[in-house]
Amino acid sequence: MADQLAEKNKSATKVAEEEYRRKLEEAKGEVNKMVAEVDGRFRQAQIEADAYYEQQGRIAGAIEAEGVAEAKGITEMNKALQRMFPPDNSINSLFYNMLANFCL
Asked: CB neighbours (10 Å) of residue 2?
């Protein structure tokens, strides 16, 4: 009788152990699935952030180029005005100053 009870307990223990191992493997699978999903979302967000950063860099470069071009244009306009109206003459100097202030 004791041997039968011992065998029954061993069998029950083995069944419980197998059930535990099955549940453990299921849990590992679920955790791995969640980790993969989170990794995928992270990578997608990283790609989007990198693309946004690059886009903003291109926009900033275009704004800078536009500002540099505008500054060069104003410089050239001022040089042309100085050639047309040299500041040695007080009337020309007054006119040049008025035009220069108007263009700024």
From this structure: 6
Mean pLDDT by 10 residues, the chain (104 residues): 75 90 96 97 98 98 97 92 72 68 66
Token code pair at residue 39? 């990794």
The structural domain count of the chain equals: 1
The answer to whether residues 71 and 62 touch, using CB atoms and an 8 Å cutoff, is no
pTM over 0.70? The answer is no
DSSP 8-state secondary structure symbol assigned to residue 89:
S
Domain assignment of residue 65, given as a range: 2-103
Distance (Å, whole) CA 37 – CA 43: 10
Residue 100 CB partners (closer than 8 Å, separation 6+): 78, 81
* Residue 48 identity (one-letter amino acid): E
| CA dist., res. 9 & res. 7, Å (int) | 5
